[in-house]
Amino acid sequence: MRPILSCDEVRNLEDLIEKEGTSKAELMELAGEFTAEQALKLAPSRVVVLVGFGNNGGDGWVAADILAQKKVHVDVISPCDPDEVPAMLARHVARRTAGRDVNVVVGPSRDELSVLIAEADLVIDAILGTGFHGSLRAPFNIWIDTVNDLAPTVLSVDVPSGLDASTGAVADACIRADITATMLAPKTGLLSGPGPEYAGQVVVGELYDKLDEVIGDVEHAAEIVEAADIVDFLEPLPADIDKYSRGSVLVVGGSSTYPGAAIMAAKSAARAGAGYVAVAAPEPCANLIRLALPSIPVFDIPADSRGSFGAAARSAVVAIAKRYSCVVCGPGMTVSAGSMDVVSGLLALDIPLILDADGLNCLSRVAIDGIDATPDMYRREAPLILTPHYRELSRLIGGKGEEVIDLAGAIDAAQRIVWAAGSDNLIVVAKGSTTAIVGVEKVLIPVSGPASLATAGSGDVLSGILAGSAVLWRDSIDRWELLAAYAVALHSYAGFAAAAKLGEKSVIATDLIDLIGDAMQMATDEALKSLGAAPAGEA
């Protein structure tokens, strides 16, 4: 796993590295070397380096110096004379570089800048670093617009200029990079909100040769889960397994209005590995679900006049749920008095429980001021996995004027919920363009899927994958965060497979279900590749 750092955590890491004997001046030299190395991979003959006032600009000055020594023509665009750069370390390397074989252009007009960029093979963006937030000022807003209009290829240093490194928020303008060479570790903003769209391919320069020894001593926002980290969940089934030892899942959901959600969750649980799957649904939609799922038993549950769970549903669902290894509650169930009663009844059981969709909305409706204000309501001994998207997460914390809109906000909101309960077995899967798995001690970021996953029913498929995976590997789960990360990764790989087969804009949620097996193979191949073994079918 690779740590993801906030801006404050990066500064703490740099301080720790300095105490270990590598100064910030040396780190700037190493950052410039890494930037130049990435630039040279693109084989440019003419490079424009845009530098700002701070240490990010210093990295750019170092890179420019190295590229010039490699016989690349370099134009450095600076807002001020090298002797006037405010940051001390950056001023030192700016003076040094300006005295060598580079062309320094101070404060060019837009037309002058346009000519230089149009003649270049590559633009290196070293304008603004991780300390930037808020609004852009001249001339940087003009520079960024010009780069986006004219540059053929852009390499950003640390973060694209105009992007908030903590939140992923974009200012008035933001560099659209093809590659972002980020230093020491990925920053939260590169994964949050529109960050991935502006960052392009992210490559990490570790810089410090003992980074693995010290980075664990710094608190970090999250960790990226790679395919090799979930390889244990990709092992083949043992020969002596049967449908009972593979585990059983009960999907509690559906309604006359939304019967399909329960169908998708149940079928996904079966595809993900569960040996036995059943559905408990309101009686008016039960036959429709039976027709769609001939291999899956469906229990008729008392309904209200709208075809949702009725007043007598709780006792019926609880009696059935006790026979299963894991319960998924929420897909398509709607929010009703009977549904809220069902959720409360399932929370009281000693069975792993996944609350999704309207199961979460029922939970937030019961709470008056956010569920974190009444943790006894959801604190339990058995594992509990909550799977909210950002709007559902906002409702779970009671609104409180804190709408969740980005990854950093989602992590904060999820941690409030988890820490209020204080349970090792409570996990929040905060779903977004980048999904965070939040536990009491760890935040994990699995591989993000394509935009094609942003379609109705995609979350129902994920809840089924979570349940099927949970029961299949229930005897070997040491960390529920990692199990959830595996399930989210499968969902992402299924999205990639569906987009490749059908086109990004044409994927619907049901397409994902039959590609879960393909997703497992993609994850396996990726894990083998990262571990140095040949993927299936390759010698």
Structure, explained:
This protein has 539 residues and is an alpha/beta fold. The chain is built from 19 helices and 18 strands. It has helices spanning 7-19, 24-40, 55-69, 88-98, 110-119, 140-150, 195-199, 211-214, 259-271, 283-292, 313-321, 337-347, 358-366, 390-396, 407-421, 458-472, 480-502, 509-513, 516-530, and strands spanning 2-4, 46-51, 73-78, 103-106, 122-126, 154-157, 179-183, 201-205, 222-224, 248-252, 276-282, 298-301, 326-329, 353-355, 384-386, 426-430, 436-438, 443-445. The strands form two sheets. The chain has an eleven-stranded mixed beta sheet, with helices on both faces. The two termini are 27 Å apart. The mean pLDDT is 94.
